[in-house]
Amino acid sequence: MSLSENSVHRRPGGRSARIRANVHRAVTELIGEDAEPLTVPLVAERAGVAPTTVYRRWGDLDSLRTEVALEVLTADAAVPDTGDLRRDLSIWCEFLVTDIARPERTAFLRAVVGSTKDDTGKSHCLDKREVQVETILRQAADRGERPPTHEAVMDVVVAPLYFRVLFGIPGADSGYARSLVDRLLPSK
What we know:
- This protein has helices at 3-9, 14-32, 40-47, 51-58, 61-73, 85-100, 103-112, 127-142, 150-166, 174-184.
- By secondary structure, it is mainly α.
- α2 (14-32) crosses α7, α3 packs across α4 (51-58) and α6 (85-100) runs parallel beside α9 (150-166).
- The termini are far apart.
């Protein structure tokens, strides 16, 4: 069998994908369990692989933790389209605060904030959230509503949610999320 024939018959994913999934799962579980200190040998044992496998693929614990955190924190979420901007933002913000306030998500946020910056100094932690905000605002504009700016949503709604969760300030819940939307979109 030639090299090209072999690659055509190769299964998608395979062993490499299973190892990656097992290591990512192990990191997620250990961070969720607040395992201290998180070490490569501990991750490897939980994942059922040798520590050398982890070192060979990720180099060090920080690189692995950052990769897993970005995957977990940037998972796609459905963007609501109820036909009303206020309802869309309220539903999305309630999802957001519930998602980021989960203990394992909070641990990931604290681990990754500041460690994934681009050349401009901007963190990639919120990339998918910004896309979701743009989608919600575009849907509202397409319906003829006058949405606020992207920057206003990030400053008035998203930033306070992340700030409270990251710094452990009580009150980051669905009611608080709705109050931020009300602040952004006051009733007429």
